Amino acid sequence: LGHWDVERIRRDFPVLHQTVNGKPLAYLDNAASSQVPQLVIERGTRYLREEHSNIHRGVHYLSQRATSAYEGAREKVRRFINAREARECIFVRGATEGINLVMHGYGRKFVGPGDEIVISEMEHHANIVPWQMLCEEKGARLRVIPMNDAGELLLDEYEALLNERTKIVAVTHVSNALGTVNPIKEIVRIAHARGIPVLVDGAQAAPHLPIDVQDLDCDFYAISGHKMFGPTGSGVLYGKAELLERMNPFMGGGDMIRSVTFERTIYAGLPNKFEAGTPAIASQIGLGAAIDYLNSIDRAAAYAYEQELLRYATERLSSIEGVRVIGTAREKASVISFTVENVHPHDIGTILDQEGIAIRAGHHCAQPVMQHFKIPATARASFAFYNTKEEVDRLAAAIEKVIEVFN
Ligand code: PMP
Fold first, then answer.
1. H helices present in 30-154, as ranges
2. Is the shortest distance between the CB of 372 and ligand 1 below 6 Å?
3. Which of 145, 263, 344, 389 is in the most buried spot, having the most CB atoms within 10 Å?
């Protein structure tokens, strides 16, 4: 196990060093949005101070600098996910937009009446609602891979769901509500054996796991920058070039065309075809800097450290009477969902906030997961590599205090 100098890493994240309600901030809501390192802040500031300009259209100096930074960020993304070509990496605002892009561009073109879309029981609403909209429009049918009570997908049932009407499989790599890491390679292999493309929602995987889209062999992979130490408004939709080329554009407008007359528009090639209008230039350049940051640390050691925090937190929380951990899959990212007997998760969140501890309470945009476990909501602590064992101890102590207050 590589050594992980958490105090040194914490110095890279200025936001962590503040007090909240008189207590040092313990930021345990990384699955919602992670924090940004100084490197990303400086890169964004430099763009705004020295390079701010529109891209692609300009022949002038600033536009060339902005374009080269923006396209440079795309190349960083390509390497980060090991895509074959940079044009397979479409810049979007986040995973939600990436999934909607596939729904519109692929789904509306290739899905018809009686066709089927396969998702899973643990999807975020971002990977449910767009497919439901498509089914409603096309008279298609949504099929759902069930999970067991540990929060693991049932692969035999998955395989049995697939048939000649299945047009796409859309599953999450890591569950935001449970932490489960799904066997994506296996899921892709099973779908591809029947010629069915697979979209992976990678929003929760990118901050933790190495991503290799060629090794996974997935057809689409969606990422949110703000969950992987980048700014909000940044994100990527990876797609295999041959699929993206067959798809319709998601939005029409400037920068996505080769030529326009009132009779006919010819679309631009990849990736421009899917990037209508002025994109979030500053945010995507910031995402490139977040990738630089991730490349500068020992990611394997970071992951091992997060797993240690997860193990420790699971042990601490499970030993508190009245606490129930929701999601006990064998392979988990550092997310721990829990309930406390007789206390609503929102009350847990509020009392923890008074202690300076930031967690998320609610259904986590995954209401079907809550329905599976027959609960309205959970409290969720999610760790990044800058969190500490001491913060886990504070979390456990605060939960004990919650139980005292309510009993
Ligand atoms: N999928 C998963 C698994 C997520 O956790 C989230 C964010 N909570 C999303 C999709 C949506 O991401 P965004 O809000 O950044 O578009």
1. 38-46, 61-81, 95-102, 108-110, 129-138
2. no
3. 145
